[in-house]
User: Fold this.
Amino acid sequence: MLARRGHHVKFVAVTNGDRGHMDMSLAADRSPLAIRRLAEAKAAVSLFGAQYECVGVHDGDVYVTRELTEQLVRIIRRWGRDPGAGPDLVLVNRPNDYHRDHRYTAQAVLDTSFMLTVPLMCPDVPRLTRMPVFAYWFDNFHEGGAFRPDIVIPLDPMMDAKADILAQHASQFFEWLPFVAGDPRKVPSDPAGRHRFALEWIQHRGKRAADVCRSIAPSKVPTDCQFAEAFQISEYGRQPGADELPSLFGRV
Assistant:
């Protein structure tokens, strides 16, 4: 939605996906899977004109280190119209996510927040003169506190587009995730069937987000909204006013 409104969007993956599969022939050399995941991710973002970058850490090997933190500082600083401008918004999962790589990635991203403005931190890249807003996308985890929906974005018109994007991640979505989830359904092999399979998944997630947010903050979810995404503003980073949230998240 942001890209369609003319905003510049970039997805950054910390890991290269090289352990996310059940094919044991990859045990001796996981690089073909990483190459495949990279191609799939680039194909996905090309559908809506975004950019993509992979830091290249092996699956399961993410730790909060100086090296990773500095890599992320440089990546965030370089994304902006002019040197020192940076992005308006940085999105990441909350640090209480189920996956260890996700938890450590979130912590590393949050660790960049103040450092983005420090001139002597990574001096090879200009410091930011304005802190971005950091926000978490929706989850239903409760260890460490429940998700707080600061803004809810209706996604009803976007479901088909999101399914098309999701379907590009074939090795992950049609192979690995059904396997690890023990999903007994037969994954379709034809494009139309895979679109329906992806659409059912993304609708389920969108409906859960809308329903959970409606139970927590009913005034923030339009009554005619069936599918939604929601975001919680992090305390780390710039604090936007309530009147800024709709334009910041593309809800106009």
Notes: Residues 3-248 form a domain with the Rossmann fold fold (CATH 3.40.50.10320).
